[in-house]
Design goal:
The complex is a heterodimer. By secondary structure, chain A is mainly alpha-helical. Chain A has 14 helices and four strands. Chain A has helices at about 5-15, 25-45, 50-75, 80-100, 105-125, 135-155, 185-205, 205-215, 220-225, 230-255, 265-280, 285-300, 310-325, 335-340; strands at about 165, 170-175, 175-180, 255-260. In chain A, strands 1-4 form a two-stranded antiparallel sheet. Chain B has one domain. Chain B is built from eleven helices and two strands, in the order H-H-H-H-E-E-H-H-H-H-H-H-H. Chain B starts with a helix and ends in an 11-residue tail after the last helix. Classes of the chains: A mainly alpha, B mainly alpha.
């Protein structure tokens, strides 16, 4: 005898009814909502230039957050040094602007990407590749050390401005048009962010993304299947460095300033907070996390009672997320299954 | 002749500071596999305890004695409430302890009001031996470090609690099966590591001015020391601390200081890469 539900299912199959959805897809709505919000913001805020600057900053820092999500959310590498690639690329384009008097967008942004890619590739080949697979602790501490050492090196190096950093970075140019802070820069950052987001989204749902998902589940088994796990990690880590480098260049142009603190563990761990708060592994989560943290800290920095304890609050938030809500804000509305993603051809997806 | 002795002594004093800081970190890392990012802030709290004692008119010596006790208590509470959730996930533990460290550091920064406070050495002055002047306080630190390392070693290798610790490290499941409460041991170990950090902070604060960042400047070096020496051993982190401390204090004499600092990290990382199991693999804790 079939039980009631089983007969129901059998009957519905016979009727040729579509299978009921296993879960409700939420991410596309979140993505769409975020995009609409991002498009509306500059018009809604056209009167307040400081808020447009803030919004641009959110977009740029989102690149850093996505870069960290590629490492942690997609390939399980805990990187405490994502700001290193961000900062070094920022310094690189600031130096090109200062010493070569050059800031054409078609050359400097690719240059920043290349700097990030190569530097991250160098780190990956040292930390990840080798005869013996490294422990995850070694990789985490290695990235932390790199970021810390770079900050110390730069803050003592006169050529790059030592502790003061490089200020009045040459403005980003397209032909004779100069991108100054404001709506134009906002849309430039938005275009870059959307392009990076689509690329990362494609990577996540591609066959490479499937391998990464398998690695997160059981790295050893993937290795037994013949995948060179560390090579995949190194590849994604390098791509993440490229994204961080792009963000660093935009940051440098937008703020007109880059300093040692922009490559240190402080900013690196802020990127961790962005990502975990929003929901790691979802790509859109880190963007929401960045927006939440940055907007709140902008609003609250006007309140005298909260300003001095804001870093303490951020610490408490990070601790609370790690302890009680490791899936982040998006974990509240997005199911585990959707966070991990679906693979294979549309229609055959299970 | 005098200058070499002086240099060697300064090197020794800095190595002692490093060993003191790394010892607690190494014991926690070996026992629970957790790299405690809040260790620098435990050092800070130890230093802050001395400052509180001194500014309220009590003797700094009382503060130095109280610091390990205060930190042991804090360690105990933190382990019970937070840290024990992270034993299964060492990477998440890094984030959790980082958050704890951030909370402590920024709170103390608020309390200090962003100022630097200097604390006088409880043993001021110098004493002269063979025509060379030695700072009394640094000598005290060196001797205390030797005493603590020896004491910890005797505790781990000669007492029954030490045997339980070594057993739980070797095989936690078997230790539990033998009726040893590993959970209680972990709590004690964490409190002990925190107490060592507190003592380190209390001892070094007269050498460096008290600021919220007094502990973080040592943190990355301390991590590398533990990795370098080998997690899971007692001698490893001590040797690692000696190596890293010696490099950090000695390299600025050989290369320009701007490069010396990052060079220490690079050398240490390369050694860890080539020898991931650490200096010491035999004779586990």
């Amino acid at each position: 005898m079939l039980s009631a539900t089983e007969t129901d299912v059998a009957a519905s199959r016979e009727r040729g009814a579509a299978r009921p959805p296993m879960f409700r897809a939420m991410l596309p709505y979140v993505e769409l909502g975020a995009l609409v919000a991002a498009l509306v913001v500059p018009f809604a805020l056209a009167e307040r230039t400081d808020l447009v600057t803030l919004a641009t900053n959110v977009l740029i820092l989102s690149l850093l957050a996505i870069s960290f999500d590629l490492c942690w959310g997609l390939s399980g590498i805990m990187s405490f040094g994502q700001a290193l690639f961000f900062g070094v690329a920022g310094y690189a384009i600031a130096l090109v602007g200062r010493d070569l008097e050059f800031s054409e967008i078609w050359a400097t942004l690719p240059l920043a990407m290349l700097v990030g890619l190569l530097l991250a590739g160098l780190f990956a080949s040292f930390l990840l590749l080798g005869r013996k697979p490294p422990t995850s602790i070694f990789v985490a501490l290695g990235t932390l050390t790199g970021s810390y050492a770079a900050e110390r090196l730069v803050s003592g190096w006169q050529y790059v401005g030592a502790g003061n950093g490089l200020s009045s970075v040459k403005l980003l140019k397209l032909g004779s048009y100069e991108f100054v802070e404001g709506t134009a820069f906002y849309f430039l950052a938005l275009v870059v962010l959307v392009a990076v987001y689509l690329g990362a989204r494609f990577l996540k749902s591609s066959q490479l993304g499937l391998v990464l998902a398998g690695m997160r589940q059981n790295e050893e088994r993937l290795a037994f299947f013949g995948y060179r796990v560390q090579l995949f990690k190194a590849l994604v880590f390098s791509l993440a460095g490229m994204v961080a480098g792009l963000g660093g260049a935009l940051y440098s142009y937008h703020q007109g300033f880059i300093g040692p603190g922009n490559m240190g563990p402080g900013l690196s761990t802020t990127a961790v907070l962005y990502c975990l708060l929003g929901g790691s592994g979802t790509l859109i989560g880190p963007i929401l996390g960045t927006a939440t943290v940055e907007v709140l800290s902008y609003v609250l920095s006007d309140v005298d009672a909260i300003k001095p304890i804001w870093p303490v609050i951020l610490g408490i938030v990070l601790l609370a997320v790690v302890m009680f809500q490791p899936k982040g804000i998006l974990g509240l509305v997005v199911s585990d299954r959707e966070r991990i993603g679906s693979y294979g051809r549309r229609g055959q997806r299970r | 002749m005098g200058i070499e002795v002086k240099l060697a002594f300064d090197l020794l004093a800095f190595i002692s500071v490093m060993v003191l800081i790394v010892l607690g970190l190494g014991i926690i890392a070996s026992m629970m596999g957790i790299f405690n990012f809040a260790h620098g802030e435990f050092v800070l709290l130890g230093a802050y305890t001395v400052y509180l004692f001194e500014s309220s008119g009590l003797s700094a010596w009382a503060g130095i004695l109280a610091a390990p006790l205060v930190l042991a208590l804090i360690g105990l509470v933190l382990e019970r409430l937070v840290i024990r959730r992270f034993y299964a996930a060492p990477i998440i533990a890094m984030l959790g302890t980082y958050a704890i460290g951030l909370i402590i550091r920024e709170t103390v920064r608020g309390l200090l009001g962003g100022h630097y406070k200097s604390i006088d050495e409880p043993l001021p002055g110098v004493f002269t031996l063979f025509g060379v002047d030695f700072s009394a306080w640094r000598t005290f630190i060196v001797l205390t470090t030797i005493a603590i390392v020896a004491g910890t070693w005797l505790f781990l290798s000669r007492t029954s609690v030490g045997l339980q610790v070594r057993g739980s490290l070797e095989n936690p499941n078997l230790a539990r099966a033998c009726g040893i409460s590993t959970s209680k041991l972990y709590t004690l170990t964490f409190a002990f590591g925190a107490a060592l950090a507190g003592l380190a902070g209390a001892l070094i604060v007269p050498l460096y001015q008290l600021s919220a960042d007094i502990g973080t400047r040592f943190l990355v070096q301390a991590f590398l020391s533990v990795m370098l020496g080998g997690v899971g051993t007692f001698e490893g982190p001590v040797l690692g601390a000696a190596a890293v401390g010696g490099m950090a204090a000695g390299l600025p004499w050989i290369v320009i200081p701007v490069l010396a600092d990052p060079l220490v990290f690079v050398i240490a990382l390369v050694i860890v890469k080539l020898r991931p199991q650490g200096f010491i693999t035999q004779g586990r804790l």
